[in-house]
Amino acid sequence: MLHGAPMILADARMYSPTPGAAAAWRDLFGWLSRAADVPLELVEPNAPLPELWRRRDLGACFICGWQLAKRASQLKPLAAPVMCDAHAQGRAVYWTDFVVRFGADFRRLEDTFRHRIAFTTKHSHAGYNAARHHLLGFPNGRGGHFYSEVAGPVGTTRAAALAVAEGVVEVAALDAYAHALLRRYEPNLALGLRVVERSELSTMPPLAASAGLDPRKVTRLTDALIGSAVDPEARPILSRLELKSFAPIDPSAYEVTLAWEKEALDRNYPEIA
Question: What are 197-232's pLDDT values in tens digits?
Fold first, then answer.
C-alpha cells in the first residue's frame, strides 16, 4: 500500500495519559496511515516535545496551540479534535479544569487561594498559559501571589491529578481533554477529583505536520481526519478517544494564546504564583 515510502512521524503523547489512551491513538494512527496512504511511524516516547516540534519529518503530531502560534511558519495544522464532552458544544475547543479532591471543602477557585497548586509544564496552554490568564481575573492578578506553594512542572496531566489525589497540593490545572481521557481510562483516580472551575474556551490543539511535508500528503491526512467521523473503522476508535470527530482549523485561531501571554506579562504576572 505504502510502496516503501520513507516514514514520517506521528505522536499523541500530549493526549496519552494512560496506556489505554496510548493504544487507542496507535490504532487511530494505523487507520490514518492506511486511509491517507501516508507512512506514519510513532515517535520514540523519550523524545522531548519541544524538540519534537522542531523536527522536519512530522506527519501527524499533536502540538499545543500556544506553541503552534510561536512556530507558525514551521508547522501546518491538519485538523483539531472535537470532544464528546457537552461543554465543547460540538466544536474543536477545550479549556482548563481546575480540580480539587472530591471531598474537599472548596466550592470556588478562590477558596483554594493561599493553598498549593500544581501545573503540568510551562509550555502548555491549558496547563499553564490559560490557567495563568484565568487567575488574572481575580483581584490579586497583577503581580500578586494567590498560592502558598506552586508545584511544577510535574510533567503530565496524570501527575498533576495524582498530586491532588495524594494531598501534595490542593488544586491543579488540567487540560480538559486529557482529563476526559483520565476519566475513561483511570476512573479510580479521576473519580477522586472534582472540577471547581473551568477556564475560558480555547481552540483545541491540532494534529500538525512539518511545513515542508509534501502538500499532497498534508491534504490526504487532513481529508482522512475530517472524514473519520463517518468511516466505519475509525468511528469506534474515536469513541475510545472520547472524540466526536476532527474539524478543519485556521492557524490564526491560536493567536489569542499569544495575547493571553502578553496580557499576563504586561500585568506583571509572568508566573503562576
Answer: 999 999 999 999 999 999 999 999 999 999 999 999
**∠ at Cα 31 (30, 33), nearest 5°?**
65
CA separation for the pair 32, 207 (Å, rounded): 12
| Domains within the chain, CATH numbers bracketed | 8-86+203-258 (3.40.190.10), 93-202 (3.40.190.10)
Q: How far apart are CA 244 and CA 83, in angstroms?
A: 6
Q: Please tell me the predicted confidence (pLDDT) of residue 2.
A: 43
Distances (CA, A) of 204 to 76, 128, 239: 15, 15, 17
Q: Is 161 strand, coil or helix?
A: helix
What is the CB neighbour count within 10 angstroms for residue 207?
28
**Mean per-residue pLDDT for 153-161?**
97
The pLDDT-based confidence of 4 (bands split at 50, 70, 90) is low
The one-letter amino acid code at 97 reads D
Grid cell of 139 as nine digits: 483581584
Closest CA to 23 of 184, 134, 177, 144: 184
How far is residue 243's CA from residue 31's CA, in Å, rounded to a whole number?
Answer: 15
Contact present, 173 and 119 (Cβ < 8 Å): yes
Q: What is the pLDDT of residue 5?
A: 61
Helix or strand (DSSP H, E) at 52: helix 49-52
Q: How many residues does the chain have?
A: 273
Instruction: Report helix, strand or coil for 176.
Output: helix
| Residue 1 pLDDT grade (very low, low, confident, very high; cuts 50, 70, 90) | very low
DSSP letter string, 185-204: H-HHHHTTEEEEEE---EEP
Closest to 171 in 3D by CA, of 155, 156, 150, 186: 150
